Amino acid sequence: MSWLRALRETARSGLTIERRRLEPLIAIRGAAGLALVIGVSLALFGPVVAASSAFGAFQAAIATFQRSWRPRPVLALVSGVSLGVSTFIGYVTGSRLLLFMILLVLWTFLAGLAWAAGPTGGIIAASNVAIMLVTITLPTSVAQAALHAAMITFGGVVQATLIVLFPVRRWGAQRDALADALAAEADYARRLRHDPVAHFDPVPLMEARSAAAVTPRQARRRPAELHGSRGAAERIRPVLASLADPAMGVPAEGPERDRVRELLAAAASLLDAAARAIRHGDPVRLPAPAVATLKTPDTGSLLTGPPLRAADRLAALLSDVIEAAEGEGTKEERAEVEETNDAIKASRGRMPAEHHRRPTLLRLIPVVLKSMRRELHHGSPILRHAVRISAVAAVGYLLGTVLPFGHGYWAPMTAVMVMRPEFSQTYARSVARFGGTVVGVVLATVIVQTAHPGVELSAALAVVCALLMYLLMRTGYAVGQACVAAYVVFLLGMAGDDWSQTVLERVVLTLAGGLLAMISYAVYPAWETPRLRNRLGDWLKEDGRYAASVVDQYAEPADRGHDDVRNALLANRAARVAWQEAVATAQHEPVRHRGLSHAAADDTQHALSQLGRVAMLMEAHLPEGGATPDPAAAPLAEALRRATEQGAKAVRERRVPDWTPVREALERWSEEERLSERGSDPVVRNGADLLLEALEEFSRGLDAGSRSGSSAEGA
């Protein structure tokens, strides 16, 4: 993609306004907290302290809107306290330019590294640095700075208290994540009826797993319906795929296939019912036709072998999901659910719910520090972002100081707020912030010229702008920045700033800050395109590790637990998502593909998806501990593990992987079967052949795509 096209695409993305579900009650609660803080500060300390404390309450409310599974009061408190500390330290060093510049560079560098802990931590840290640049200009002494810092912290405490006193849809984010995972599996079951080899995006399951992580305090308060559904949902996915895939024994057409379609439709209906119940906290409303389908004894007369085994496991897992999602309900409703569970539950009992622990805030500190240390190496996108943001903050502050406008903090504040580790987000946000700032300043100017507001009216208008920002912030960054621009104009007007001077400063210095952010990425980029081969190699390695772990289970079912399969699956999912995100990011970068064409990326992605899907089919039929071992599976598992590790190295070195060890292991297995006249489990034997086919398809796609890419570059 050329630079001109990349700039055009990112500008369009930044100015896009989306239709999103609004959350008016949460927006009103945040605005009420802001109004309370401003009112108390005005009454006790005057408009200057009120403006400073308002920034704390404003930022604390924004922190609660971030995508995080931690309790919202905790986010508000962390934001308020950290901003208060930043303000005090910033003011103490602000009178000495050199000392303050050192602090600013260090603070922004750490804020950039905070992205290693996740987007929420990075956004809160960057916002604190940006707002600190404004708040340190308001105090006039160290004592005043301490008062301002205390009131900023008070703003965070107020927002946290309001969240506790007036909760809006407790556990709503966790409910939505789990419901989305169940709904995604319901959609998957429906697609399998028409496409037996349909692929499934694991992101909803990954989100649900992340949402299920709780601190010990949260574990004691979590609703019962959020306990066990996710674990059963994780196990349902491979069973659905195994039941539908013709390679597992069900013909493409005929009465067996019709029965499978009926079971898939019933599973989809029950999963949707569980998803609705969990999302809204209501009792499960079981669809009668789906229940009847699962109760009928016809399944045993039509299906045999692995398909029948998959059907029985599906019934048991659906029973677990329904029980977990049951909720309170009436006595009659609970009796209906229990009766249905007894009817469709197989001989296996309900599997215990998986407990996924989240560290408390204090125990999270060493985890975050360790994550930040891991990014301190050459080539890390997070480290490059930290270097860029700290350099731009320093240059922007010096530029604002030199320019004859005053209030030079607008330039570095803009740069810090718009910069992200990715190219497209940085450029899109830069355009959106400038456009939103112009609109917000113009609207605020018209209101000021028309109404000539005093202190109280300016405060009220600032609260209204904040309310609109909280309400509309998810519809687009430009919309939110228009509200923020007007909010700052009214708030600083309340503190005594000349609004007309603020208008000129905001427009010019916002433009300067956005340009600095964009230039910094062009000068010191962190392109994802050159790293595509590394991401592909990582996915190949983890895909092979997952397949090898599954095959190993057939070799030694009594000696191996399922934890190694589970861990390999989670690592495989993370590698797959990292690859998909890298491809999506690379599509918007003004960089030519280096050694991996678009065709090669598509073909190899399809092959690795197929490799993971086959391993998933085999996972659906993992033998129990007392099953007969299949020793021939062990050499294949070892060959898969080593060959994919070597294949990943070959991909990174721009070579085509060789799968001769896997092919030889399969040939030895076939020879042993012929000599011993003992057949292996058809699931693992057929699956092994499909694994080799997927690996060979990967090499063909990589080879063809690499040759076509080289030809295009040469031309």
Secondary-structure blueprint of this entry?
Layout (H helix, E strand, L loop, with lengths): L2 H12 L9 H21 L2 H17 L8 H23 L2 H17 L5 H17 L6 H24 L6 H23 L8 H10 L3 H6 L7 H16 L10 H26 L7 H8 L2 H5 L2 H20 L6 H14 L16 H14 L6 H22 L7 H9 L4 H29 L3 H18 L4 H18 L4 H25 L8 H24 L7 H24 L11 H22 L13 H20 L7 H17 L5 H33 L1
Helix pairs in contact: 1-20, 2-3, 2-7, 2-21, 3-4, 3-6, 3-7, 4-6, 4-7, 5-6, 5-18, 6-19, 8-9, 8-11, 8-12, 11-15, 11-26, 12-13, 12-15, 15-16, 18-19, 18-23, 19-23, 20-22, 20-23, 21-22, 22-23, 24-25, 24-26, 24-27, 26-29, 27-28
Give a brief description:
Helix content is 75%, strand content 0%. The protein has 715 residues and is mainly α. Helix 2 (24-44) packs antiparallel against helix 7 (142-165), helix 8 runs parallel beside helix 11 (229-244) and helix 12 packs across helix 13.
Distance between the termini: 17 Å
The fraction of residues in strands falls at under 5%
How many E strands?
A: 0
3D shape: globular
| Element-by-element helix/strand order | HHHHHHHHHHHHHHHHHHHHHHHHHHHHH
Q: Helix- and strand-based class?
A: mainly alpha
Sheet with most strands: none
Low-confidence stretches: 328-354, 711-715
What's the pLDDT, averaged over the residues? 85
* Radius of gyration, whole Å: 29 Å
Please estimate the helix content: over 70%
How many H/I helices?
29
Give the tags.
single chain, 715 residues, 29 helices
Protein architecture, described:
This protein is an all-alpha fold. Helix content is 75%, strand content 0%. The chain is built from 29 helices and no strands. 50% of the residues are buried. The model is unreliable at 328-354 and 711-715 (pLDDT under 50).
